[in-house]
Structure formats: structure tokens, C-alpha cells
Amino acid sequence: MAAKQADMDIEIVKVDANAEPALVLENNPLGKIPVLILEDGTSIFDSRAITQYLARASKNKLFPRSAEKRLEAERLEALADGLCDALLAHVYERRMRPEEKVHQPWLDKQWGKAVRALDYFNENAPALTKNPTVGIIALRAALAYTDLRFGDTKWEKGRGKLKSWRTRFDKRYPELVELLPQA
């Protein structure tokens, strides 16, 4: 989504990260996604490193020019990434362990982080600007991941402002919505 907003032409390759695909392992020793592979073969991994690269390569189309607004976008990106980290930890706890070994206190802790982040976003949803910042993009991607992995939890209940924000985002930036994770 950030690459699209930065007007960067990239090829999206979907992989199953759990299968430890060679393409990912060759380009990120941690085996994590996303990975951006440049034409010269250089790989950039971690969402924030990728967005920083895209911002520089696009003459800063992803961050506001003012220091205060840039910090706001960076904080929003960090919290959205943290939401995804907590949700991913929750997913992996269930996916990687047999049911009898799943540690419920760990799941509860991760879900608590997610709830606090979602509550924060509900009360502090960012304004939708003409050009969405990396923080706005990260938040929408995090909500798509929440829907994908936790849609059955009814996480939207009591978060009408955030639900409305998501709807407004989708109407305002349809070209970005088509890039959201799908089931």
C-alpha cells in the first residue's frame, strides 16, 4: 500500500511465510515478511525500514513535511505495527502449539495489547488527508489483518468511530483498499 501511495512500481509476490520459502529466507535471514527486493538485488526488510526507503525514493510522499505531523505519522505507524505484532503473537501461539500446550495467560496478554490499541485508535482515529501518510496506511493494514485473523471476535463492537473511519478510508482510497490482505 505504501509503495502504491509513493508511486513506486513493484511486483507483489504472495508467499506462505510459515513454509519458510527460499525467496524470503534468501532476502531476510529472519524469514519474516514483508521484504522489498530492489532491482540491484538489495533487500529491505521490516515494514518501517521499507516505508523509510519508499519515502526517500519518492521524495517523501509518505510523511508530512512538518516535524510535528511527521512524528504523529510515525507514532501511528508504530502503534499499528505493534497491534499487528500482538495479534501475530496470538496467532502463532495457537498455530505452533498443540491445544493442550497453548498458554492462555500469554494469549490474554497479547489480546489485551490489541484491545488497548484498538480502543486508542477508536478514540484517536487520524484525519484522512488528501495524501494518506504511512501511519494512516499502517492503521488500515492493521485493521485488515485484525479482520482477517480475528473477524470472529467481533472486535468492532463498541468501536463505532474506528469502524466509521475504516469505511471512510475505503471510500476515499479505493486504489489502496485493493491491496489489503484477503482471506
Tell me about this structure.
With 183 residues, this protein is mainly alpha-helical. The protein is 57% helix and 3% strand. The protein has a two-stranded antiparallel ribbon. A hairpin with a 5-residue loop joins strand 1 and strand 2. Helix 4 (67-96) packs antiparallel against helix 5. The longest helix has 30 residues, at 67-96. The radius of gyration is 17 Å and the shape is globular. The two termini are 17 Å apart. The mean pLDDT is 95.
Oligomer classification: single chain
Rg result: 17 Å
Shape: globular
> Whole-number average pLDDT?
95
End-to-end separation in angstroms reads: 17 Å
Residue windows where pLDDT falls under 50 for at least 5 positions: none
Percentage of residues in strands? under 5%
Number of helices: 8
Order of H and E elements: HHEEHHHHHH
For the secondary structure, the number of strands is 2
Helix content: 55-70%
Widest sheet: strand ordering: 1-2
Structure in a nutshell:
The chain is mainly alpha-helical.
Topology:
Layout: H1 2-5, H2 22-27, E1 35-37, E2 43-45, H3 47-57, H4 67-96, H5 104-123, H6 134-150, H7 160-172, H8 174-177
Antiparallel strand pairs: 1-2
Defining traits:
single chain; two-stranded antiparallel ribbon; 8 helices
